[in-house]
Amino acid sequence: MTKNIDNKILLTDTLSIEPDSSSLYPKPFDQIVKGRHRHRVSNVVGLTKFGVNVVRLESGAFSSARHWHTKQDEFIYVLAGTLTLVSDEGHTEISEGTSVGFPAGVSNGHQIANFSKSDAWYIEVGDRPSNEIVTYPDIDMLNTVDNGKPFFTHKDGRAFSEESN
After folding, report:
1. Distances from the Cα of 164 to the Cαs of 17, 45, 61, 144, in angstroms?
2. CATH of domain 2-129
């Protein structure tokens, strides 16, 4: 339920927002995020400068492919459960109350994994640069964001074929 206060401020019951379990990744990489469910809060409360999602990550699921951004800062805060930060340094367990920042331009690929036996919850926040490049060090994929729209290619610039989508 979303409530409008003075036509300026929006309140919402976050968990009433239908979770988005989809992926923009081309096949077969879209399967990496199977089990990730994002409640897209910023869209519901009218924010445009940065994105806020409340995420439920099922046991065995990943937040994304391991990646890093040229221009976007990212932040996560663990609400409940035990998660694992996967980065160039290896695996680091993170749990309720832990915050992690990923500054733009730092070429340390990262992702959040749920290796526990229970679902875990976290908040993710990122600014929304209209143009940037997202690099995925472990897979043959690159995302060139142009005017806010993602465009996924192989690292050599080839588009994913229809058979891959």
Report:
1. 31, 35, 22, 18
2. 2.60.120.10
Top-confidence residue, 45 or 93: 93
Domain borders along the chain are 2-129
Q: How far apart are CA 150 and CA 165, in angstroms?
A: 14
Cβ distance 64 to 82 under 8 Å?
no
d(CA 160, CA 110): 23
**β-strands 99-102, 141-145: how paired?**
unpaired
**pLDDT of 6 above 90:** no
User: Can you give the pLDDT at residue 162?
Assistant: 46
Angle at 43 between CA 37 and CA 45, to 5 degrees: 115
- Cα separations in angstroms, 56 against 83, 158, 159: 11, 33, 31
Are 149 and 138 a contacting pair, CB within 8 Å?
A: no
Which strands form 82-87's sheet, in the order they lie side by side?
90-95, 82-87, 111-113
pLDDT, tens digit, for every residue of 56-83? 999 999 999 999 999 999 999 999 999 9
